[in-house]
Design goal:
Putative motility protein; YjfB_motility
C-alpha cells in the first residue's frame, strides 16, 4: 500500500511530541490511513468470486487453471 500523503507523514513526525499540533496531525494521518484501508477493502470486495472446482467427472477435477 502506498501512502500518498508523504508530506502529512513527515509533518506528523516532525511536530513536538505532546503538543496539540502533533495530536491533530496524528489524528488526520490515522483518518487518512483508515480511508485508504477502506478503499482497498472495497476494491477487494468488488472482485468476482472464484468458480468452484468440478467435483466429478474426468475434466476439471485435478487441475484448477485460470487464464
Amino acid at each position: 500500500m502506498e501512502l500518498a500523503n508523504t508530506a502529512l507523514v513527515h509533518k506528523a513526525g516532525s511536530a513536538a511530541p505532546g503538543s496539540v499540533q502533533s495530536s491533530a496531525q496524528m489524528l488526520v494521518l490515522k483518518k487518512a490511513i483508515d480511508q485508504q484501508a477502506q478503499g482497498a477493502l472495497q476494491l477487494l470486495d468488488a472482485l468476482p468470486a472464484q468458480p468452484a472446482l468440478a467435483s466429478s467427472g474426468s475434466l476439471g477435477t485435478r487441475l484448477n487453471v485460470y487464464a
